[in-house]
Amino acid sequence: MSYFPNINQIEYEGPKSTNPFAFKFYNPQEKIGDQTLEEFLRFGVAYWHTFTQDLTDPFGSGTAIRPWDKFKGLDLAKARVEAAFEFFEKLSVPYFCFHEVDIAPEGDSLRETYKNLDIIVAMIKDYMKDSKVKLLWNTANNFTNPRFLHGAASSNNADVFAYSAAKVKKGLEIGKELGGESYVFWGGREGYETLLNTDMKLEMDNLGRFFHMAVDYAKEIGFDAQFLIEPKPKEPTTHQYDFDVATGYAFLQHYGLDKHFKFNIEANHATLAGHTFEHELRYARIHNMLGSVDANQGDPLLGWDTDEFPTDLYSTTLAMYEIIKNGGLGKGGLNFDAKVRRGSFEVEDLFHAHIAGMDSFAVGYKVANQLIKDQVLENIVAERYKSYTEGIGLDIVEGKTDLKKLEAYALDLDEIQHESGKLERIKATLNQYLLRAFAGE
User: How far apart are CA 23 and CA 358, in angstroms?
Assistant: First the structure.
């Protein structure tokens, strides 16, 4: 059975194409340096948004029309696997990601849930034998079920901690069986609403203990995936322990976990934390902690996680600048943790959305690569901070001065001279590079 009978293989047709089912800028076999776009960008499809999301939002029920939704239970799970691999093949995407509840229904007990997972994992593994698609990462959903109403690893209830640990143990085993390149920890309810009834130290200590157990078990079973923390502010708890990259990095350092984890950074989470996407990427990169990306965007007029497909070329360019500077994403990739809009309820919209996202990051990659090749931003930054390359500035950088010497130097200063930051000129230059990409220059 075909779930997308009216859609052919998605091919690259170039910028002048008017075919809505074709790539305009993403040519998977095009090379930049010694890697193709497919090899460097490492696009992934998010199983949850693409195959299980019914487009419910906080104010309305689902609108999605999906041909597999006529099935129930394990039959529905099997149909989604069939649809997923048809989708992967027609889109020629190299990776996919999932939570365990995305691929198989929960049973009445954890033991029954395991049995359901075993059936579907075996089916996925069989499909992967004849497909180029690989598992970018998997993760445990320790946030949706009411049992997690007070959190998972940070729960006040030890039984919930144990249940969450069991799910992660199973997830690590599944990741190994399917050849997952990374494993993500998204603490959807790892936080608190009020300090009035919270033992913050115990909760954070338990979260640290939980991660160490996961590290130890991965080593025990020989699962060498990259572990990733995904920062998430505000939703669903008021105070998330994984609020942003800086908060998460401090946590990892404090608990001796920074050698075992990197970050999976989502654009929409960055903006909810009050940062730009590129800020979070830069913070992670300069600390050698950038591991993977959830490629989406938020609506600046809405204060919640809208998970829109990325189409902002300014944002994708600055994101790819950081990723190129990072030397790529290693075992990570660009996972489209994004859903079509509630009004885009047809299956064709799933293809249009992914095509738009892949084209947007392809443009961003090409523009960022040219910016780096021409050393545009590097030269601007070098010129702005040139006072630290000689004289007293060089002494500061090299640790050859102290407060007394700096005071003596400052007392003899005449009026301090500043230079313009030229921000408007810099943004105009970035626009020029973006427009060149469409002009083919």
Answer: 8
